[in-house]
Amino acid sequence: GGTVVHMSSGWSALVLCLILGKRSGFGKRVFAPHSLVLTMVGTSMLWVGWYGFNAGSAVASDGVAANAFTTTTLAAAVAAAVWPLLEWLTRGKPTVLGFCSGAVAGLVVITPGAGFVTPSSAVLIGVLAGVVPFLACTKMKAFFKYDDALDTFGVHGVGGTMGALLTGFFATPEVNANLSTNLAGIVGKTLWLEQLKAIGLTLTLSVGATAVIAYALKAVLGLRPSLEGEEEGLDQTDHGEAGYHPEEGGAHSSSESAEAMEMLQPAKLHRAERA
Q1: What are the distances in angstroms from CA 87 to CA 95, 162, 254?
Q2: 245 to each of 206, 233, 249, 254, 259, how far by Cα in Å?
Q3: Which of 64, 88, 238, 239 could bridge across to 94 with cysteines, CB 3.0–4.6 Å?
């Protein structure tokens, strides 16, 4: 999971960020999540679902599955506390978004080692998962000024890479006997080097393949909408509708809202005259 899922998606996201370029208004506008309530709901769904592929990877109801369940919980919970704590220390206030980001980072980093590390190691991994991706999503992104809207690289790319490497240091046959059977010569010795090789291979494949595909699509079809389309929103330009209608009457656009209000005015005046 750390390499195949998180590293490949995270590093590919960085490549696409660089090729696609920044959103209109990047650095001038505040692009905040439109609903922290949905962010919390989504994080909760992710957290619960994560047990399926961490504990479920044991393909049995045994001690390895139970350990994976435990380590997943610990790493996510610790990272969910560390991330907002760092916000508190650096910005003066912890945030719900920070809690959710920390939880996802903890889940990402523990994924490669969930069935191979002890609960105490999972706590340490959770601390690192709260610190390193936080710095990647704040300090590093601000320094290099790339536009990663969902912090996919900071959480999944950096977190997945770190998780894969940490597994090489913390994996132990005390948790998973398969390590003694198949990797007895390198566990506790040079397993981290093998993990490093896997990291290098994954990085090469994901970055290289994504760059080739992205540049090919850019040359043939294009990757960005027009500036006008970006400002108006792709829901409107591609589908002629919006997901939210705060205007009275649920109109699709401000112009339709104005038309609807004009249609309502005679009825309001008629009711007033009768009163």
Answers
A1: 7, 21, 38
A2: 39, 14, 8, 10, 15
A3: 88
Among residues 217, 216, 238, 220, the alpha carbon closest in space to that of 229 is found at: 238
* pLDDT tens per residue, range 199-242: 999 999 999 999 999 999 999 999 988 888 888 888 888 898 88
75-78-79 Cα angle (round to 5)? 80
Do 257 and 269 form a contact (C-beta atoms < 8 A)? Answer: no
| Spacing of C-alpha 137 from chain mean position | 11
* Tokens found for residue 265: 């005015």
| Pair of tokens at residue 185 | 């010569």
pTM metric for this prediction: 0.84
The domain spans of the chain are 2-224, 238-274
- Convert 64-80 to b/e letters by CB count within 10 Å (16 or more is b): bbebbbebbbbbbbbbb
